[in-house]
Amino acid sequence: MSLLAVEDALNRILDGITPTETEFAPVAMAGGRVLADPLAATRTQPPWATSAMDGYAVRGADVVEATTLKLIGQSAAGHRFEGELKPGETVRIFTGAPMPPGADTVIIQENVETNGNQIKVPATEPRRFVRPRGLDFAQGDELLKEGQTLTPTRIALAAAMGYAEVPVRKKPVFAVLSTGDELVLPGETTGPDQIVASNNFGVAAMLQAAGAASVDLGIAPDDPGAIAEKLRTAIDGGADVLVTTGGASVGDHDYVQEVLGTLGVEIGFWKIAMRPGKPLMFGRRGPATFIGLPGNPVSALVCTRIFLVPLARAFLGLDSKETYEDAILGADVPENDRRQDHLRATLGIENGRLVATPFSRQDSSMLAALGRADALVIRPPHAPAAQAGDVCRVLRMNLST
Ligand code: AMP
Ligand code: MG
To answer: Cys-Cys crosslink for 162: which of 22, 42, 52, 133, Cβ 3.0 to 4.6 Å?
Structure first.
């Protein structure tokens, strides 16, 4: 059987995926979400000229030389001075307080001498320590763009622009099911032939980091009826993507392909030219996408990183092209065969350069090693042997925005 290239498989998975609908999220809950529309400021900031310091508001023309001014009141944040500043007068002012009409300069409090309502001020450059109206932004300024991820700084900006709610892309819903008679949940007692399921948790966490929502379908035994029932519930619940792990191969106890057939899913069963993770099942039924991942924990998570993270990004209307980085190899690697290899590696900085050091053992069941891995060193099909010091391409395992 010929093997499908990783890139071709990804293109087929992404084919026809359109961005999810828009929904409104409270700004307090919108961190990490993707803006579905551009946002224009609903207000001008600051709305009036304001003091940048605690001090005294004066007329610039009054303080060309050192002088003494008469204190006539105060302007604090939230409590403006009602009145106008006439020649020879000053108003006590605090940071963020509106400048009284007539005043255009602030003298910081450390530079004045007070004697009752007589304020002695030094010669001062006009317009010091005043923030003009609209210094930050003006009403109507389009400051946030569609497709931007709402980082903490952009959340603060959206709030300052006057938005209590922001239009964001609905999170695509990925339902995740582990399959296998040998699996129990963490915290449960393991029987003599049982191990603890980890795939559904790792896959869900990675999808959430990519901006998707996950529904945990738990564990189904190696029984077509049980697997079908779990998947049917998730389809009825409106999941965009149904992900299974395990049972995706062609062993006697691998039922996922059969179940997808009974559910009416059009299946593409692929052997992909990649390691880890050769068998991958893919199908569509109506708007729902089905992905059958291999059961080995490292394969499941590497396939999630390579195929499902870009899929989540496509649903969010984001560029699903991956950012690969160049790094220096920290260890020799052998010649590669026809499967693209994804070597688990640590990343470090040496002499200012990114160094990727692949682990010497790369077994696809070794989660402890995956837990130490920062990145995958991508070795294309038939790549020649490479030595420590050569340049390689890496893809980070953990996602950043
Ligand atoms: P399978 O693809 O079902 O043949 O499983 C391959 C290997 O992955 C077997 O050793 C399984 O025990 C293991 N495995 C399958 N599913 C999980 C899971 N959810 N968590 C941890 N290991 C799993
Ligand atoms: Mg199995």
So the answer is: 42
Classify domain 6-20+171-315 at the CATH class level: alpha beta
What residue type is assigned to position 256 of the chain? Answer: V
Domain boundaries, the chain: 6-20+171-315, 22-45+136-169, 50-131, 325-396
Atom 16, ligand 1: residue with shortest CA distance: 295
Q: Which ligand has its closest atom nearest to the C-alpha of 183?
A: 1
What architecture (CATH level 2) is domain 325-396? Answer: Beta Barrel (2.40)
Give the Cβ contact number of residue 202 at 10 Å: 19
- How far apart CA 132 and CA 359 sit, in angstroms, is 58
Residues with Cβ within 8 Å of 213's Cβ and at least 6 positions away in sequence, in order, are 171, 172, 173, 174, 207
Question: Measuring CA to CA, which residue among 305, 5, 34 is closest to residue 158?
Answer: 34
**Ligand 1 pocket residues where CB is under 6 Å:** 178, 180, 182-183, 195, 197-200, 245-249, 294-297
User: What is the second-level CATH architecture of the domain 22-45+136-169?
Assistant: Alpha-Beta Complex (3.90)
The fold of 50-131 is Molybdopterin biosynthesis moeA protein; domain 3 (2.170.190)
Residue whose Cα lies nearest atom 17 of ligand 1: it is 295
Tens of each residue's pLDDT in the chain, 401 residues: 689 999 999 999 999 999 999 999 999 999 999 999 999 999 999 999 999 999 999 999 999 999 999 999 999 999 999 999 999 999 999 999 999 999 999 999 999 999 999 999 999 999 999 999 999 999 999 999 999 999 999 999 999 999 999 999 999 999 999 999 999 999 999 999 999 999 999 999 999 999 999 999 999 999 999 999 999 999 999 999 999 999 988 888 889 999 999 999 988 878 899 999 888 999 999 999 999 999 999 999 999 999 999 999 999 999 999 989 999 999 999 999 999 999 999 999 999 999 999 999 999 889 999 999 999 999 999 999 999 999 999 999 988 75
CA of 275 to the centre of ligand 2 (A): 18
Query: Cβ-count burial of 135 within 10 angstroms (0-12 exposed, 13-18 middle, 19+ buried)?
Result: middle
Q: Is the pTM of this model over 0.90?
A: yes
